Amino acid sequence: MTDAARARELDAADPLAHLRARFLGVDDPSVVAYFDGNSLGRPLRATAQRMDAFVREQWGGRLIRGWTDEWLDWPLVLGDRLGAIALGAAPGQVVVADSTTVLLYKLIRAAVDAQPDRREIVVDTDNFPTDRYVVEGIAAERGRVVRWVETDPVAGITPAQVAEVVGPDTALLVFSHVAYRSAFVADAAEITRLAHDAGALVLWDLSHSVGSVPVSLDAWGADLAVGCSYKYLNGGPGAPAFGYVATRHLDRLRQPVQGWMGRADLFEMGPGYEAAPGVRAVLSGTPPILAMVPLGAGLDLLEEAGIAAVRTKSVLLTQHVVELADAWLAPLGFRVASPRDPERRGSHVTLCHPDARALNARLVDAGVIPDFRAPDGLRIGLSPLSTSFAEVHRGMELVREVASRG
């Protein structure tokens, strides 16, 4: 399982292998292995072409007419495409806009305000920092209480833990579907059911799921969701995020940042604010149109590949890393800090080592680019559409070599 021939066999049998050539930089000799696609995906060749065409033809050619041509509809059009391709969401529930943090604020605040008689917001201690910070800020702002769930960084949030904390005072639960540190995949359907049985709402952060792990928001019965597009969707640095509001909540929830783009008649410019119907009400200011161009290219590729095939390759890639880590790195003081059950593991593997921070810096210098997470984690991120098994093998060899020297 550690022989280079094994990696070549896996690449030869990979039905998605040909898609790697669609990305820029995959043949750059200075990068032996890119293990950080779970933070920032590689750019697509099509993205460079579309950005050039957009600037020259749509922006340069149509100028401000582009807004009424089509740009005003992009947040909803791309939202519906994203919902169909990657989120398991019917049309009219997903909007592309803002950053993940801003959308978290809007939807968490809306959910809390809609339940004034419930005081608690539940969040786990190992959730992504911005989720925790936003929850703490809203709790202080609205006079609510944060109910912390102490989670094992490897095991993640479980239905049993949720059952212990939800009750008549719970307004909202905020969890990540795939944990940013360990890649633990939560049982979203069961956790959502438990929350609903207690009369509470759930918001799922899909930032480490979308584009690598199948998501079924409608089937889960999810209430709200937020996620970014610059990881497995290859939207680029600072790419816009997305927000999901289940149809049944669209007339009930009101996000707090009232801007002209979310108004019923945005060009009336009149007094007072009347929210637009449907998910468009989640919008506030001018949508980041230029930043949506790469997302469109990423969705095209994901649709072509199919999320089921992407997930199959993701499981094989992460399993390959686990096998190499057990054989090569465990004797050097590493331990696998991600679930070993592939059903409960997303598309990255965290390897813990006491000198992880220093090792990360030396690996980057050597051409292997992982991701350090305090206090001792090296995240090996595998983006199925752009990562080959041979790349994984070469990169893990270099991890062993650098760790052996130090």
UniProtKB/TrEMBL annotation:
Pfam families: KYNU_C. GO terms for molecular function: kynureninase activity; pyridoxal phosphate binding. The modification N6-(pyridoxal phosphate)lysine is found at K231. It is an enzyme of class 3 (hydrolase). It comes from the Bacteria. It catalyses: L-kynurenine + H2O = anthranilate + L-alanine + H(+); 3-hydroxy-L-kynurenine + H2O = 3-hydroxyanthranilate + L-alanine + H(+). Its EC number is 3.7.1.3. Pathway: Cofactor biosynthesis; NAD(+) biosynthesis; quinolinate from L-kynurenine: step 2/3; Amino-acid degradation; L-kynurenine degradation; L-alanine and anthranilate from L-kynurenine: step 1/1. Pyridoxal 5'-phosphate binds at T100, T101, F128, P129, T130, D131, D205, H208, Y230, W260, T286. SUPFAM superfamilies: PLP-dependent transferases. One of its GO terms (biological process) is quinolinate biosynthetic process. Belongs to the kynureninase family. Homodimer. Catalyzes the cleavage of L-kynurenine (L-Kyn) and L-3-hydroxykynurenine (L-3OHKyn) into anthranilic acid (AA) and 3-hydroxyanthranilic acid (3-OHAA), respectively. PANTHER family: KYNURENINASE. This is Kynureninase.
